[in-house]
Amino acid sequence: MISEVLPDFRYLDSNKEYVMVKSNTLPSGQTRIDNMEICGITKRFPGVLANDHIDFDVKSGEVHALLGENGAGKSTLMKILYGIYHPDEGEIFINQKPVTINSPMDAIKSGIGMIHQHFMLVQTLTVAENVALGLLSSRGLLTDLDRVSKRIIELADIYNLKIDPDAYIWQLSVGQQQRVEIIKALYRGAALLILDEPTAVLTPQEVEELFAIMRQMVKDGYALIFISHKLHEVIEISNRVTVLRNGKRISTHLTSETTKEDLARWMVGHDIEFITSHEKSNVGEVLLKLENVSCNSDNGRHGLSDVSLEIHSGEILGIAGVSGNCQLELAETITGMRKTTGGHIYLGPDEITGLAPGELTERMLSYIPEERMRDGVIRNFSVAENMILREHHKSPYSRSGFLRLKDISAHTDELIEQFQVKTPSQATLAKNLSGGNIQKLVLAREISRNPRAIIAAQPTRGLDIGASEYVRAQLLEQRKAGAAIMLISEDLDEIFALSDRIAVIYEGKIMDVLTCEEATRERVGLLMAGVHPKKKASA
Amino acid sequence: MISDLFSTTVIIGIISSGIRLATPYLYASLGETFSQRSGVLNLGVEGQMLMGAFAAFYVALKFGSLWGGVLAAILVGAVFGLAMAFVSNNLHAAQGISGIGFYLFGLGMSNLLFQKMIGTVETVQGFPKIYIPFLSDIPGIGEIFFSHNILVYIAFFLVPVAWFVLNKTTLGLKIRAVGENPDAADSLGVSVIRVRYFTVIFGGVMSALGGASLSIALLNVFQQNMTSGLGFIAVALVYFGGWRPWGILGGALLFSMVNSLQLWIQVLGIPIPSEIALMMPYILTILVLVVSTSKVRGPSALSKPFERGD
Amino acid sequence: MKKPYVVLIGLLVLSLMFSSCATAATEEPAAAAEAAQVEEAAEEAEVAPMEEAAEPFRVAVVMPSAINDVAFSQSMYEALLFVQEKMGGADAFDFVYSENMFVVDDAAAAIRDYATQGYDLVIAHGSQYGSSLQEIAPDFPDTSFAWGTTVDTFGIPNIFAYEAASQEGGYVNGVIAASLSTSKKIGVIGPIETGDAKLYVDGFKVGAEATDPAIEVSVNWTGSFSDVALASEAATTHIANGADVLTGSAQMVVGAIGKAQESDVLWFGTQANQTSLAPSIVVASQVYHWEGVLQEMIGLINAGTLGGQSFTLTLANGGEVIEFNPDYALPDDVKALADSTVQGIIDGTITITLPAAE
Questions:
Q1: pLDDT band at residue A20, thresholds of 50, 70 and 90?
Q2: Are B284 and B258 spatial neighbours (Cβ–Cβ below 8 Å)?
Q3: Would you tell me which CATH number, out of the four given (3.40.1830.10, 3.40.50.2300, 3.30.1330.30, 3.30.428.10), belongs to the domain C57-165+291-313?
Q4: Is the ipTM of this complex over 0.90?
């Protein structure tokens, strides 16, 4: 059925016209994979049917997007294709011939390359060393890095990638590291590339550059599988799209014949109302204020420097930035978990610089931490115990050091109900809840106190669409109630959807603070990359 | 009296005895460097040294063959390394604790075998000093550098070899990658487990050779617990040397020379309490560690067992 | 519980078995047999009080190093063997020991175990065990304990104390050493500046300096009883500094003796006879004979006195003996001087004034 969707050996050009690919040799010298077909793949994990008889295929000259929520089974499917997992049932065909893929080595030999979401690069090695790793050397036991470097430059030239083979990985930006991953796959003769959430860590400009490379590769005859949960990207880049839900294939369509709403419905199983815009709320006095705040970071590189921000009552200030630009440091500094090296922080009229987290709790500052499993809950505590973590020492939850279990239980029941936490019981350990429900638990604890200020760090990362929209709605609810909210997120869509103003952070500095009207994707994207649009214009 | 320290005899004495004292450290630390660079923390070095020392001594004593003793140490070290590799790679045991287990096992086992198979303290004729022609005749220099036994020369020769293997060979590249990011190495078809088996077995062999260098080359006796914490210093020297062979050479020599300096301070009767003199090498080690660790980072995957998939 | 932990625990148990299990003194090699004997001993303990006359006198010893260390522990082991033979074998005198108990906590546990098993006398052979004994002894008022080297019984009625006046043998060794040295430089290697080793080293120094005021005795403490490598390098250092006579205390000196032999430098031993280690260069050894003290204690215990007294080994009471190496050709005049020194100490005509403690 799927193979009828497109005839063989052509790609869709920008005018949506089919063009024949002439040679069956790719620019990297590798023979094309005309088509790859996965038939009836089933994979069971204890208690979970991760893949349930899934069919999927990809052809030379197309981007086939694989769409689904966390846990829908896309990663499992791709790990099977790449030989990391072994399927319980099903077959894989390349160019109509059945193949067995037992390890990444087999996948590489079959011409399959994978760009992992978390880059598979050794930070302390150079680009050339990373590429050469695991390959036979022309000099036997000795490395042949000069030859490898030469070939890297050749491959990089095809797609204009500009990579210095002698640079250490840790010296490269995230976007450059991704290119190294692509080169690495091409070097190994990949004709089919799996790109697992490749845009998650990129700035909008870097996403555009990646898409340009992908388009060129498709034109050259590569087969690309693009995994994402960002609908607009899927619509922008893919030729076909397959949606998975709960381990099953829900649909496969030409992208041009679907809409964002269709895709979302297939993903979630019911209609979703997207929070696209929000009413203006009544912005009040300044509640949270940072004045020239600086701090050190863990890795010995730049920490926060001279950060000044103001958040008003009833306002959401979005902090946009590429991962690893001191977002964590910012949140930890405000919430008292990290020492400042300079500057002042105020909550309302009172200075709170250097106060301990317990002290800040008293002053009604709430924190929704980025690492919810590490900082948000105690994994081996029950739901009820986690619910009262912040106020366990206070009436009515305890008296003279003794916990009052009845009151705790009543309070927990109320919150479970109110915040729709799906848990078998109050006594269930936090670690046994799903990511979405853990986040709801954290929200319930942090928000139910009606805090004056909320620091929300990556509040929807890793959550499914339903849970994400719920969390966002709750934040808007708090904004309406007059809280000052700092929303730290690497998801630009989220920033744009919720924020009243957007501050962009780069290497620990605030590049600029823009109002909703000023903030365009392009402008924010440039700031995220550390480029000041105004300066550029004047240069 | 302090001026006595600057006489030629004393300076030659300090350096040449520093070189001898550094020898067992070099073997053990270079071996440990390989296993740590691949991500395995082996705290059983001391036990492996004792077993190697015993095996070499036993063969030398009973069969009269020094090279047979070296071979015996290599075999025993390999067996111990294999066991450590199995425990850390296949059973995913906590490496710190299992290393201590192997240390205690080696300590007890070498003692038991000593009691049952030899019984009393005996001495052997160890490897003789080799005077390198012409070079050993140079005054001072000759005594310091060219009048040692073969195991001392081999230890120092292994430093550039280890550097070369780590940095210039495909094996070295795999070792470094596996210790930094085993998932990445695995995704490129490098067998993380195989690399770690190799390095841990190699580490065991090197530790055992370090032990053998004591029992059949430098001291020519075996006694229970004769290494007396040397294996743990060797592990510390790996950190001290920043996981690099040349750094380890520097660390081992510095530590050993300060140790021989303190021996001279006592022998010359310089009025420093012996307790203070004895502390000198350790104080120095701590100081260097404090200064250097802020700059050098160890292998990221050190002591983390590898399991495919997540 | 996961597999790794099982393996780990298995390893730990094995290693503990090897390193510190109680080893029976009789000549049974197999570990299984030893274990059986310990069990047997425990059973015997229950019936012991009733049939005391028919039961052997039972002694347990905890020692810091091995029974064949050619030093401190070996001297006690040999004394126990001697007493056993003298009293008519294992039927009359039975003893067990735990060696290599360099961890004081392990030693304390062993001491308590032995006391629980009803041994007649439990010996803690090491001054580091004192405070443990002080705690344990009052819990077992019917068991006799002994410890050394010290004179302190803590005023507890079931503790004996014993020590060796090792400065006496040290003095004699020092006299001979000074007479034989031509370079007038003598090197001493000690473990930790305390107890028996300090007495020996101080006595040696006094003896050497009394014989030849120009003699230079330099002392090197290694900070450890077991660091063979450092002791050996200390010997090398002494030799490089011109010493032609060396001595040293504790079990780690085996390495140093090797270095002395290599460089053909003379050696004086203490605690046990060290001639066998280097027959060509060992001149004499001060040897401890604990058997006298042991027999005296046994007599007292059988008579109902469980402690409260302290004993000192001296040249005069035969607890210390200077044993000469028959293979070393000691000049007659030096031998005569040595003998007269021994006699002088026994008579009291020679008194050894040790330097005051700092």
A1: low
A2: yes
A3: 3.40.50.2300
A4: no
